[in-house]
Batch of 2 targets.
Target 1
Amino acid sequence: MDNFVATEETYDWKREHGTSPTIKKMAHQVRMRGTDNQILQGRALGLWSKNTEQMNAFLRQSVEEIRKFQLLKIKKLVDNAFANVPFYRELYTACGYELGSISSFSDFERLPIVNKSLLNSFEPSKIVNDAEHLEHANTSRTSGSSGSPFTVYSDDNDIILDHLQVLRFYSSCLKTPLQESDWIYLLHHEGLAFSSLHGKYRTFQLPDLLPDTPLGEHLSYLRPRLLVTLPSYLPLILQHKEHVKSSGVEAILTNSESSTQQERDYYSKALGLPVYDEYSSEEIGMIATQCTHGNYHVIEDGVYLEIVNADSRGFGNVVCTDLNNELMPLIRFDHGDVAKRTTSNSLCECGSACTSLEEINGRRDDTFRTRGLEVVPSASLLAAIDDILITPDKTLKHFRLIQKNSETVELITQYSGAPHKSMPKILQELRDRISLLFGYSITLLHREVHEWPMQKSYKRRSIVREWEIN
Ligand SMILES: [Zn+2]
């Protein structure tokens, strides 16, 4: 591999495609991000070199120290939003807010919760603190499940900090810290803000993984230390098992789609590598990352997270405050996701005092609800499918579970041959198991299809709730 020589051009990671024309072609489909330039890479590199120790130390602080830091950030953020962002000025004035009136988290948690559709009903210039900065601002646009696109504006500092937090997470997943010369391999439609920092901490990105992608050979050529991927690609990655191991990959990280612990454990065992999951959103960036003990720890220097309106099982709405986006403050922003805090009060065995989430259920719209509106954990539903449909059967190609109303669930399947057990028996077992999760008896319908409906979204939607609740 060539050594990088600093020029005005950014480091060209795409030329490390090895000998494969397929890899070359796929890498060239990746579009370069606007942020991925020499100047911002240089600023990020400078900060990373200077602050790595400090950033690592932050996560090892006591809860009291973390909260003290966050409260200071929040006071500044809210006052800045109130003073300079017309949207928040109006919203907070209406509830009697005055500058400097936050002195505790309970003060803060009395401020109204905002969401995408509320922010979307205002002109972009009304939701940022500097309308003149808008045309130069970095944007990320999300489609979301609601069908209304949403643009988040952020300044360079926010983009850089987010990237450094990603590097810190990557480094924490390795046996020894990430080195300048290391490669990270992304099997993902979405790249990082920076493909490298002046040729250091490089990423190689394939936007898709297809059955005929010569991934194994390319891994052997590049020898990355981490593989970052959608959980959907894990079965295909497993087919390159020998290469994955011999190329020196130390861990696999998943994000963007929800996957169950059971699923990740299966691939971790099969590949002989740890698999860690990350919970993030387009709006906020990285929210929580999984530690070696399976808990999701909140990235407390990036986000203040609340679980609001928790039901009796502990599942509530994920409400986040981005501590670093000063241009377009997202304060008490409801993602539409559902999660549950870790119930134990003791410190996680990994030593982190950061807020822990036990389970993240993804989009609230897709979460099954009982007639009393309690959350039925998606992970438990998927585990039932795993046990009853998938584990014993190789002929099941696709499935989807749809909640039609409070009493009825429909299973859609596509088999490539006959199921190994009789369908009535499968349905009976599944109905009993789902009824247990609901706490009452449900009706299970079944439909076998010959053609699986195509989906635009990358997100796997194997759990869908059609029953609308208000
Ligand atoms: Zn932990």
Target 2
Amino acid sequence: MEKSQRVVLISGASRGIGAATAREMGRRGYHVAVNYRRNADAAAEVVSAIKVAGGSAQAVQADVCDPEQVSVMLDAIRADRGGIDALVCNANTVNPPFEPLLTLSWDDFIGKVNGELAGAYFLTQGVLRGMAEQRKGRIVYVSSTAAETIGAVAAHSTAKAALNTFSRHVAGVAAQYGVVVNTVAFGAVRTDATAGVMTDDLRTFMESRAVSGRLLEPDEAARSIAMLADEDFIASVGQVLRVDGGFEVLDQQLHPMVGHFE
Ligand SMILES: NC(=O)c1ccc[n+]([C@@H]2O[C@H](COP(=O)([O-])OP(=O)(O)OC[C@H]3O[C@@H](n4cnc5c(N)ncnc54)[C@H](OP(=O)(O)O)[C@@H]3O)[C@@H](O)[C@H]2O)c1
């Protein structure tokens, strides 16, 4: 089949950051494959919004942790569209409990690490050969600043740190074929995933360490993913871009030690 339009596959695009990225990539002229696991209605809404805005999209169901389902999904997209130019590994496959390390169960710990890596691994293996043959392509992994955080997030942090390392390995292999791979690590973004854990105290703390005085919105997060996923982007390879609304520098500014040097 002859390809007429660039194609991006976004995992977990029915809600949150993935849905916003789907709309942004649609605006940029990509045909968007909107992957979801269960929420067909939400995926259909994203597809409809892209089409209403003049773009092109389709919903594609698959649990990205299941290699059979990933394979069927990728075959369907290729049969329909002729290939995949960009992949965004975004699905929030497992929400681990925010549990202190001493009481965190092994099943919860390894379940998060396993789910995070399975989603990235099966999709990566599924698209990379085709991209290497085309000698072009973009892969973006969606990670978190939690990879560097210590606290009741051991499962989440370990999973995202592993994802960062995995992404650098993929980048090294892919670069030999002209395929550009990068990762974006977000601070807190206002989505369903954060709604469940964001107490008033935590929100106030996070907002005090944001240049804007508020959490990042999914649309803001989406623009940084889209920048890295777009075929025009070639400026970095194998990097983890921190997108935290200023958290890191403001956190340091507010540290008691800063006062001793002003
Ligand atoms: N929100 C934040 O503050 C934040 C911060 C740093 C990093 N991140 C990362 O950003 C990414 C998106 O997070 P989010 O907050 O937007 O998540 P979210 O609002 O919880 O949305 C999760 C999305 O992932 C899909 N999904 C879950 N498991 C899946 C599976 N096995 N296969 C396919 N799709 C699956 C869901 O599909 P259904 O609708 O069908 O359930 C949904 O579209 C995640 O990788 C997360 O770790 C988020």
